[in-house]
Amino acid sequence: MALFEIRNLTFTYPGQEKPALTDLSFSLEQGEFLVVCGKSGCGKSTLLRHFKTAMSPYGERKGHILLEGRELDTVSVREQGARIGYVLQSPDNQLVTDKVWHELAFGLENLGYETGTIRLRVAEMASFFGIQTWFEKNVEELSGGQKQLLNLAAVMAMQPDLLVLDEPTSQLDPLAAGDFLATLRKINAELGTTILIIEHRLEEVLAYADRVMVMENGRILALDEPAKLPARTRDNDMFRAMPVPMRIFEALSGEGFSPVTVREGREWLEGWMKNREAAGSSGEETRQDGGYREAASEVVIEARDVWFRYEKKLPDVVRDLNLTVRKGELYCLLGGNGTGKSTTLSLLGRIRKPYRGKLYLKGKELGKYRESELYGAVLGILPQNPQCLFVKDTVEKDLREMSKDEERLRDVIAKTEIGHLMNSHPYDLSGGEQQRAALAKVLLLNPEIILLDEPTKGLDGFYKQKLAEILKGLTKEGRTILMVSHDIEFCAEYGDTCALFFHGGVVTSAPARQFFAGNSFYTTAANRMARKWYPDAVTAKDVIERCRES
Amino acid sequence: MDAFSGYHPLINFTYFTIVIGLSMFYMHPVFLALSLAGSVSYSVYLKGRKTVKVFLIGMLPVCLLTMVMNPLFSHAGATMLFYMRNGNPVTLESIMYGLASGLMLAGVISWFSVFHEVMTSDKFMYLFGKVVPAFSLLLSMTLRFVPRFTAQIKRVAESQQCIGRNVNNGKLYERAAHGLKILSITTTWALENSVETADSMKSRAYGLRGRTNFSIYRFDRRDGALLAFLLGTTGVLLTCMHLRKLKILYFPVFIMNETTTGAVILYILYGILCMLPLILNILEDIKWRSLRSEI
């Protein structure tokens, strides 16, 4: 019998005419790993909240939700609490207590277990997740990835049958996200826990998934195995969010089972190449890449031998940093966590000062700018969490605070496409919308240089593309953008110059294509998949074009 | 690792209640000196040389001040030494009392500084969580909330700085307005985020009847033995004080018990009590050394 069965579920939020979920029917088998994806606002979060009565949103609901054949509403809170676990988006907000051990025990305390049982369960979970080493720490001391693992462990301590996760990795960097998903995979494989997860980093999670549900406008667009997905979604916007091997597969043949991982993609491409050679087409040829401009324009940002540490006794965070960014560029600073990228941004933003070396903006030393001049026409900074920029209760008020100039206001609103959001509270916007509203606020200062810290964090493919279009528009106007990012795919596709940041400094910087073609680990999925044949193909589009050409 | 902190929170708490209580309410000079010696030496053991500096700069002046001030304002006592210019007498008894008060103050302050080090928030929470279960969770959540809130204020302020709207930008009026705005939005932020925290609590079955309190502490035999010792010693001391084996009187005349064998035994007992954490630590150190030499 299926663990969960949803029959004709229709749900409407109060005061809205259009239902958020329309006539959904599907079942969730015991031990299944089901991934849900879709554009933001497609109803996937609303759907996930229906798997537990305590989490269900208010509104009008029709249809049935059955847990092992029983109506979910009739199952006791105690049973639901223990058997259905939720992990939500924000690693921070979910933590209730101040100590790691207390957090692990929290759910079990609520269920009223005595100390002996709790001790055993907590010990089991801590060992399974490898938490022993930070067991007695304050939760404040943990990294984002550790916090999210702790949230997962705290839920798992209650030994649920079903684990529901709502974009659990969106606030994590790629490494921590990979760890998290691998742990989920381990839970699924070793404990047999059923997993229902919303995720937009499909590259990794699809390798683990049994089935994928693609949602659109509150309906199920497709529900199938990952390998059959391209055929079901090819005419949809969501197709762009699919992993690179799938996109290449679909563009080149689209018949049979699609590869999901890079390895499968490479194997498939191998076969495809053989077939084509058998059909007698031309062999390898490397194409000269004429896609980038010669570096001729004026230098806008320059760092010369910059060193920085937070305190005298602490190690250097930025060491011997040299950097030149030219006018009109989209410059991407890539690199792992804790290498000093964000600190570099704060140095350029004059929030912190280097203890050695000089920084120049537009040829003038950073320290010589007056405050009003620097944070106006020269420099605009978008912090990692765009929420920090908002101070008013509607987007409109927030923007009007920056500028009284109606024309400028209209122009910026049009550019960032936030016209429909003017009356919303900034905190009610989705991640991508917040990002754009915050960008609008910065743009109202009319800065020539814009610094962005992880602008693609937590955005789905659709919003990323929108952001890219806006950024490209800004560089065309002659503004210079320096962004710090983990997002290789985004930088490869849209960046002009990419630099690898490591150990406090820039190791190498080159035009985007050249940069990725030269790396072997630190490069895009498309490049890893096709480098054997086309070492300079960096994006999925490149690979497809090259394959078609020859 | 401090050996005394490794004992059960109940032991830690009982111990501090006893020594701080006795130091505060029993102004026997020998006891005061022992108490001060015990607390200062333990605090040096725990926190190193820094304490000595804090003690010399911070505490000593306060104690000296108490010693000097008391005879200037209190004129009780029978033994007059001389008259001040305004005609009030300075008495031997009030000087003695001032001296004792200074010692007492120093002792209690330094006991509290050690208390703070040993009784961490989770120990405190564990003890009082048993009495009022809701309090323990509330305290834990507060301890989590406060650092988050301050960190967010800092983040917002930095972001506002970059658009020229921090508390140090603009005219006085504008600065105040910026500060207020930052505070208000951070409050909104906290409320907004608490929704998700509430969800997380609800989804983990918070609110059911019969919630228990888990802790990582266990009251073992070693704790039992030490508790018995603590209570026994305190019992003996209190009984002897009650039976006037020890006595102290400051006014109208200074009277102290004679140094009999019985009194010396009691002094030693109290000395052991005050030095207890240090003794436990030293015993532990010796044990480690012998363990190591066996390897």
UniProtKB/TrEMBL annotation, chain A:
Per its UniProt entry, which superkingdom is the organism in? Bacteria
GO CC annotation, single: ATP-binding cassette (ABC) transporter complex
Cited Pfam families = ABC_tran
User: What keyword terms does UniProt attach to this protein?
Assistant: ATP-binding, Cell membrane, Membrane, Nucleotide-binding, Translocase, Transport
Q: Which PROSITE patterns match?
A: ABC_TRANSPORTER_1, ABC_TRANSPORTER_2
Its placement in the membrane is given as: Peripheral membrane protein
> Which SUPFAM superfamilies does the entry mention?
P-loop containing nucleoside triphosphate hydrolases
Question: Where, subcellularly, is it found?
Answer: Cell membrane
Any GO molecular function: ATP binding
SMART domains (UniProt xref): AAA
Q: Which residues form the ABC transporter domain?
A: 4-242, 301-528
Give the family this protein belongs to, as stated in its UniProt record.
Belongs to the ABC transporter superfamily.
Q: Give the protein name, as stated in the record.
A: Energy-coupling factor ABC transporter ATP-binding protein
Automatic annotation (TrEMBL), chain B:
- Reading the lineage from the top rank, the first entry is Bacteria
Q: How does it sit in the membrane?
A: Multi-pass membrane protein
Fetch the CDD domains from UniProt.
EcfT
What protein am I looking at? Energy-coupling factor transporter transmembrane protein EcfT
Q: According to its UniProt record, where is this protein mainly located?
A: membrane
Question: Where does this protein reside within or beyond the cell?
Answer: Membrane
InterPro entries given in the database record: ABC/ECF_trnsptr_transmembrane (IPR003339)
**GO CC, any one term:** plasma membrane
Q: Any keyword Repeat?
A: no
State the organism of origin: Anaerosacchariphilus hominis
- Residue ranges spanning the membrane: these are 12-34, 54-73, 94-112, 124-146, 225-244, 264-283
Could you list this entry's UniProt keywords, alphabetically sorted.
Membrane, Transmembrane, Transmembrane helix
